Amino acid sequence: MAIRASSQNHNPGAARLPRRVAVQSDPVSREAHTDLANDAAAREQNLGLYSWGLAADGLQGTLYGVQITPYAILMRSWKNLPLTNGEASRLLLDNCNKPLRTELKEVFISALLYSFHHIFLDRSDPTIFTEGHGRESPNPEVDLSGTVGWFTTLTPIYAYAEDSDSLIDVIRKIKDVRRRIPGNGQPYFASRFFNDSAWAEFRKHEKMEIVVNFIGSTSHLRQPGSSFRMEDLEGDSLARFGQGVNRLAIFEITIEAKEDGLHEIRHQTKIYQWIRGFEQSLIQLSTVLRDAQPQLTLSDVHIPSFSYRQLDELVRTQLRLITPNLDNIQDVYPCSPMQQGILVSQVRDPSKHSCELLPPKTGAPVVDEERFIRAWEHVCARHDTLRTVFFESIVHRGNFEQVVMGQVTPDILFTECEDEDSALQQLESQRGHVLVDATSIFVLLRDLALAYDGSLSLVPGPSYRSYVEYIAQQNRILNIEYWKSYLDGAEITHFPQLEGDKMSMSTGIVSFEIPDLVSLLQFCSTYQLTQASVFQTAWALILHKYTNLDHVCFGYLSGGRDAPIDGIEDAVGTFVNMMICHQSLASSTVIVDAVSKVQDDFLNGLGHQHCALADMIAGADLPSDLFNTVMSYRHGFSESDLNPRMLRFDGMRGDDPTEYDILLNIECGHNKILVSMRYSLSIMSSEVAASVGNAFLQVIESIVSDRLNTISDISLLHDRDRRIFDEANGSLPETVSATVHDSVIQQTKRRPNSDAMTSWDGNLTYTQLDKLSSSLAEHLISLNVGSQVRIVPICSEKSLWAVVSMLAVLKTGAVFVCLPINHPIQRLETILREIEAPMILTSTTQGGRFLNSALSIICLSSGFLHNLPTPSRQLPKVDPEDTVFLMFTSGSTGRPKGILISHQSLCSSAAAHGQRWDIDSQSRVFQYAAFTHDVSITDVFTTLIRGGCVCIPSEEQRMDDIAGAMRNMRVNWCFLTPSVADLLQPEEVPSLRTLVLGGEAATIENINCWAHAVKLIICYGPAECSVYATGTDSVLKTSDPTNIGRPIGCRVWIVDQSDHRSLLPLGAVGEILIEGPGVGSGYFNDPERTLKSFVQDLPWTKSKCYRTGDL
């Protein structure tokens, strides 16, 4: 090995060296390297040129008797310094680069800098320019190795050596700085001559102090029989360059590997010492590096802003645990944003982001196991992603980074199948989405087939690190600003829990095919729209209908393989990116316009797709759980795309990664489009999932069939769901054509001496109740009730006599209406005027409130009723269609509504819910609700119609001692609101067997408290439909408190709230429509409101239905 150093001749006795100047030496990023080189080189060149006695500005004057012109340094001398230690030369050219993964040029530059630093103690370290061959082509298809021409590049390298640095420390610094220079210096060097601004910026770089060129070995020219040979120039008198030739630098050092082993300049002694020190450094390095253990430098670890202290900690705490052999570590770099999200999700829930794939089978009877193993090892060797291990970051706790192993021996498990069909050798494998996306599965299977055939390339595949580095170069701030603007107005969009098991950790999948592909293609062609845009619009409409939100959003997985990285289409890794689709869906929007907007939004967002999802959402100041559904659209692959000769595959399916409750995978094949919806069983059952899939198909059909449709015209109900609804609702329940009082009389005949009522103020048997109510009825008839007085108001506290009066009014053929005892008299007078009542039935305590009115007041008491004559006349005939009661709402949101319910409606409801909830002759029903609430009507009359006993507490007990009243009356059946139920504990009411909750939303606390102790039922129903419309079976501890059960004596439809003639699919959020015999007659004296709420002649039924207004 020989070192040829050429230098500028000069007078050795002149200028003194300047003192050492400290220069920042921290490693820099690629982006900052040019600036660092510019700054360091300029400063050092000025110092350097002065130190050798040269003028920095213009270089005017003479140098060793030769005229110096600006930017011209003339060649004056050169010397050969053979490395005298042949063993050191051999070692340096052999294995000395392995421990630190260095190149020989880096070792030489380090030795040069180290020796310079320790010889020239009174000046700063120089910037060293390195010559490169420049034949690296950005296009792998262009090979410059055989082209004659001048491709040389010059690149500055500056690393500040500390006095305490060892040779190894300097090597690490030089290596790290050099490896961070983009393109081996080609971009820097080209910019100096092909860019006007760079020409001015780097002008001082022409005044170089030291240039090093390592030309490698020329031993092949010295072999016997070689056509060419190197001719050594003998003697120092024969210069290699003429004295008038322009010099590149003050010192030009050329290092050449040879088989055998400066004129004068200022500081010649130190220069000689420097060169000899350089030689000694190389000799020292030859043994130090030979004996050194493998270690990493910062340039081997592509983690931004990493220090050697952190690197040492990383090796000690992480990498040594992964592998004791650092020499087997190929790469270390951060995770991509998608990988980061997946890994964090897996920490929270290890079951996320994994699925099963059933890949290979062969046309031959068996798979050659050894051949298959070799094929898979070949695939692992080609794709570094398959040799990757993830570890928690020591810099950003909670985040992850990844290390790529150089060589691995993959574990392969073969399973034997017992039956003949399974003997097709299906290999089950678990895969993690953190390593591969759906497209990567195809690449893996293709390469596995090629490797099995023996035709897979030995060239390593594209590195995933290139993609991670590309993402890191994106403008994060600009991306966040885009998503902040785009997500303005977005709402949390969670597909609701429908009939799922909240405790389930499993997933289900429903698959279907787009049926009318021709219409879809024609629609897209006509309006220049993509299929993906149609699917995104359809899913936005699904979310709109199922969540009742006008601003919906969901995740959309983009392929990510449009990044400008060579060979990315054949790379293996997680390249997908999560984008967000946010749509505002006004009902008047034309569908074509909606699809166009989705497409424009997607195209605009592509330039910002590499932004981390967490950054998108946080930048828009939105919650992290913004959405729970994701769509993926991609072109599918088939076995024919693999074109294998010996290995075929089943199960060519791959899902992109997701931790969300619903993942909609749309795979576009050659002549069909397949949709698979993977869903969490915690939010929906398989039946509901099928319905959601049908709705998705129906929306697509609506979009492409009538292009002038608006969003409000879109139908979600598929024919299959309509059939499901019809089957679930069944036929319309038959109407019980009877009157309430006649039904009670039937029970009197069956059980005359059974308790009909137990109250704080007494007890009545069915016979006693019948006699007292009939006596009062005759008295009322004598006062023209029934014939002229159609509505009789009742105002009473909880009492036996209030119920007796209700039944008595019914026997007259009139209608009763209960008035609240705690409302102001002015409010009561308003109702009384509206119903034009001439009389009122009251308790003895309430009668005084009406003394100033013109009403006839009948005060109910035990004495008054028992003193009435025994009934003797025939009571009037009442039609089942006649009204049984009138009930006014509170009027808190406007004018009170007077609800009219017929006898047959109440009897039909009582028959249905009484049978469903086991109200019978053994039932002792607690009558808690106020008489002005609709539940009080069923508490009383369903119980009496079914032969049970009504248990009535006093107002004081009702407010202060519910449990005591229930115990005393041995109550076993009760309706309460959830908030009142919270006031009780099961052990306080040991006789209670059935508890029905309604009137407000039930809670999980209600379920936890009562589900184990009683038959717990959750119900729903408006007063307009005879109180009850739906109810659950017995609720379990795992049940959803929002589930209101199945229809009771009616049919329930879910319709679009903006169009009650449009049915919605199962689980969609819409208005509840109730059809059945329990539906009321309308509103008292309010035909307009009646017409709006009680509708008929709908497309699917001619029966009267009630629009609840509830969603």
From TrEMBL:
<dbReference type="GO" id="GO:0016874">
    <property type="term" value="F:ligase activity"/>
</dbReference>
<dbReference type="GO" id="GO:0043041">
    <property type="term" value="P:amino acid activation for nonribosomal peptide biosynthetic process"/>
</dbReference>
<dbReference type="GO" id="GO:0031177">
    <property type="term" value="F:phosphopantetheine binding"/>
</dbReference>
<feature type="domain" description="AMP-dependent synthetase/ligase">
    <location>
        <begin position="746"/>
        <end position="1084"/>
    </location>
</feature>
<feature type="domain" description="Condensation">
    <location>
        <begin position="433"/>
        <end position="722"/>
    </location>
</feature>
<dbReference type="InterPro" id="IPR042099">
    <property type="entry name" value="ANL_N_sf"/>
</dbReference>
<dbReference type="InterPro" id="IPR023213">
    <property type="entry name" value="CAT-like_dom_sf"/>
</dbReference>
<dbReference type="Pfam" id="PF00501">
    <property type="entry name" value="AMP-binding"/>
</dbReference>
<keyword id="KW-0597">Phosphoprotein</keyword>
<dbReference type="InterPro" id="IPR020845">
    <property type="entry name" value="AMP-binding_CS"/>
</dbReference>
<dbReference type="GO" id="GO:0044550">
    <property type="term" value="P:secondary metabolite biosynthetic process"/>
</dbReference>
<dbReference type="InterPro" id="IPR000873">
    <property type="entry name" value="AMP-dep_synth/lig_dom"/>
</dbReference>
<feature type="domain" description="Condensation">
    <location>
        <begin position="330"/>
        <end position="423"/>
    </location>
</feature>
<dbReference type="Pfam" id="PF00668">
    <property type="entry name" value="Condensation"/>
</dbReference>
<protein>
    <submittedName>
        <fullName>Uncharacterized protein</fullName>
    </submittedName>
</protein>
<keyword id="KW-0596">Phosphopantetheine</keyword>
<dbReference type="GO" id="GO:0005737">
    <property type="term" value="C:cytoplasm"/>
</dbReference>
<keyword id="KW-0436">Ligase</keyword>
<dbReference type="InterPro" id="IPR001242">
    <property type="entry name" value="Condensation_dom"/>
</dbReference>
